[in-house]
Amino acid sequence: MHAPASAIAGEEVTISTNGSGKATFYLLGPGVSRKSDVSLGSEVQLKAQDLQNAGEYFAFLCSDTCRSSSFYVTAAKPASLTFLVHPSRVPVGQGDAVSGVALPFDQFRNLVLTPETVNFHLLEGTASVFSRSSQTRDGIAWFRTASQKSAGTLQVDASLGDLSARRAVQQVASDPCNLRIKGERTKAGILVQTEPVRDCAGNPVPDGTIVSFTATDGNGRSTVDAPIKQGVARAQLEAPGATVISVASGVAMGNELRIGAQP
Amino acid sequence: MKFTLPIILVAVTAGLMTLALFGAGHSSGTVGIAAGSAVFSTKASTPEQGLNNLLADVQRRNWDRAYSALSTTSAGDRQSFIQDWTGSDGSLRSFSSLEGFQARPLHATNDDAQMRVRLHWTTPVGPIEDVRDFHLIREGGTWKVAWPKMQISSVPAQIIPVTYLRWDLVSGSGSDEWGSKNVDAPHVRIISMNAVDSAEGAVVMGEVVNEDTIPAFVNVNAALVDGAGKAIDDESSFDKIDHVLLPKQVTPYRIDFPNINLKNVKNVRMDVKATLVPASADPVIGVMNQKVVSDVQGKSILQGDLMNESGQTVNIPHVIASFYDNNGKVIWVSDGYVNRALLPQSGQPFAVEIPKSLAGKVQSFHVVVNQYSLVRS
What we know:
- The complex is a heterodimer of chains A (about 260) and B (about 375).
- Chain A has about 260 residues and is an all-beta fold.
- Chain A contains no helices and 25 strands.
- Chain B folds into 3 domains: about 30-145, NTF2-like, domain 1 (Nuclear Transport Factor 2, Chain: A); about 190-275, Immunoglobulin-like, CATH 2.60.40; about 285-370, Immunoglobulins (Immunoglobulin-like).
- In chain B, a hairpin with a 5-residue loop joins β3 and β4 (about 130-140).
- Chain B has helices at about 5-25, 45-60, 65-70, 80-85, 355-360; strands at about 35, 95-110, 110-120, 130-140, 140-145, 190-195, 200-210, 215-225, 230-235, 245, 250-260, 265-275, 285-295, 300-310, 315-325, 330-335, 345-355, 365-370.
């Protein structure tokens, strides 16, 4: 029995036999087992659907005694590209914060282990910010890069021949920087609000981020956790006496405001 | 002869009913204390009986008799009297029932008396105890409660502009390809943890922060492990946490392990789970005039006023407070539900208790307000 040393997934294979008389043929492979009666001296045709899974196959031919042969089925040409990008959200200006892994698969979902060239391309809006060609090694190509300086959506593309996959990474502002507040007395108390809240690179901190205002006067302490809306956070505090107001968001502290007692 | 057994059964049943009606209220009484019961005396010849009559009618929701039996010096109308007991605006009180009470005289003369009552309420969030003082006056030989005028929040008609914030999750369209629908869970972190023994058992507490830019639904779990590495018990923070955290928001958490002593615990395994949820940035609730004081019973409490700065009614406000020692370590977490609804642009007082043994160590505190609104749910 003579089997080819290797074959391609989804393609027919012919195994030749010697001798005469009847025999039983067995095929064992990844997810496949088959038994058939054959005539020795003729060829055994292995159909394409029997060889869809990449891996090592064993052929056995038994008459008086059994003979065996093995061959390896490799993946066919790439038919799809799986692309994993991490993370889906990342603060701006972080080194080696964005990574992507591309894995080419053939039409039968076998990982293509032969080296292929994958092109990675990162776009901010329409501006290209990163481009790299990388050869797959053991079926995997990857990249790692820093997040950009400005907040917004980072489009990440991977392509291999005419195959492509696209992912999006949301680049978000870092912690607030130079948090500043101003306030004034109103009929209802003290209306205090931040200046537009930005990170150290000047990106607006996302709306919804909590800013904590604390007012301390002779009556005790008053606090309001207010979300940033349209770039600023504001709160109404009750403090009739001379009051010190402080502000914080996450790890960032802001300025202190001293407001005199209600006249 | 065939009628003997039914007659005996009827007689015994009637006897038991009579005994239950007239005997139960007095069985557990203590000298000077009127214990919780729903027994009505036709004539209240003592302050205890006068108060008992009122509370019995309140328990039975017999509002006509309860209101008509109030002292003529009472202030407030019938509607506000009923509303004070039954709640309104979907508040916690409107889902509660008066289960029992214990009254203790504070002072008494021939014509007036002051009584302090512990009211035991059953509520959807568990039993709640309320302490209230009542003033009673003797009118024509009958003791009656002088009902004070209640401050009921009312909100004038107005328009409050609100900038709505919301977060939408786009889960990706097209193929179900691997990696095409990945959105990271929110990043949350336990920033402090402390385990202590309390009278009821072991308590694990601390604080959690949402470090992400999206809202998170957070739950903290803890498992107590003994010296052999075997789990003794595991519990979650349940309602002693603000589950929905906006970006950069910090919440206290407390996990109770009833009847477990820390001396048997070698290790505590903490686990915080966060999932991405739709959330709203409103309503904003301010916590005003926070102060640690002693209440009328001599207990240390943190009290203050909640102020609803939004245009949406908060039906059931829930206050969670963390207390720190002089090293900034969380030494206790207390919580409490507010009985009254928080109407737009109005306030409600709150108080949470600090254990006596820790009151002297408290240097600072942080209060967050969890809220349940019927409109949203």
